[in-house]
Amino acid sequence: MRHLMSPLDFTTDELEKLFDLANEIEKQPEKYAHICEGKILATCFYEPSTRTRLSFESAMTRLGGRVIGFSDANSSSAAKGESVSDTIRVISCYADICAMRHPKEGAPMVAASKSLIPVINAGDGGHQHPTQTLTDLLTIRSLHGSLGGYTIGLCGDLKFGRTVHSLINALVRYDDIKFVFISPTELRVPDYVTDMLNEKGIEYEEVIKLEDVIGDLDILYMTRVQKERFFNEEDYIRLKDFYILTPEKLALAKENMLVLHPLPRVNEISVEVDDDPRAAYFKQAQYGVYVRMALILTLLGLA
Ligand code: CP
Question: In terms of domains, do 135 and 278 share one?
Fold first, then answer.
């Protein structure tokens, strides 16, 4: 039995197979429409979500399976003090696979250690968000043709953004990647990330102004300032609108630069950018369904 806690749980060869399967599902969805009949996915979400929970539910439904779960810790027995370990032992009796989101770093890992079914980390605190990373990688591979050989700018909340941490971890395994970290000083990427890049000899730079570097980028990965992880509202209000990608700023970028965003967006990309052919964040959400379909099949041994 296999779980998914981090994007590094799959080798790059395994990821290639997963992405090939996701692209095949995209082209021939009818071939996969009944493959999970009789299987049940549990979505255990202790933290709010639109895309991750509903794309998992859509993925399992499109595979012919069924879905149970909760979308709020307060509507589960966690509100009465039940541990994650006990909850997953019980969910193991009801479902064949579980996607779990939790505000505490490591909670899905604790669940996996007690589970009788595959557990997928659907986001744990500010730590990891591996299925978002699979979505990001599939989007880049599908729209740019490969996973190496480009300069990627990550912009916004690089301190608390778990999608950023997961994506950097995953991308360092590909050739000829350069990172440009664009953030206010207070939201810099954590030292453990830059230490890891220094150890591996991977090129990166840290800047504050998006306009200074946007012209060098092949991919711009925008992120939201993570309000829920701030200790103090004043800091959030001061930093929340630090970056707003507008058509004027996008005019400085390469013709084929991809704009990605894990979503939800707050103000960091102006809605006028949505019609630009480089804006790929809604396509990215669609790829999230295909990659989760491929992941469910792989972890259930049905691929
Ligand atoms: N990208 C993402 O994780 O979105 P949700 O929080 O809506 O699931």
Answer: yes
Render pLDDT for 108-165 as a digit per residue (tens, 0 to 9): 999 999 999 999 999 998 888 999 999 999 999 999 999 999 999 999 999 988 899 9
Q: Into how many domains does the chain fold?
A: 2
- For residue 204, give every residue at least 6 positions away whose Cβ sits within 8 Å of its Cβ, in sequence order, or none: 178, 179, 180, 181, 194, 197
Closest CA to 298 of 94, 45, 19, 100: 19
Question: Residue 2 falls within a domain, yes or no?
Answer: no
Mutation test residue for ligand 1: of 47, 49, 167, the one with most atoms within 8 Å of CB: 49
Residue with the smallest CA separation from ligand 1 atom 1 is 262
Structural domain contains residue 1: no
Ligand 1 binding pocket (C-beta < 6 A) is 49-52, 123, 132, 262-264
Q: Rg of the Cα trace of the chain?
A: 19
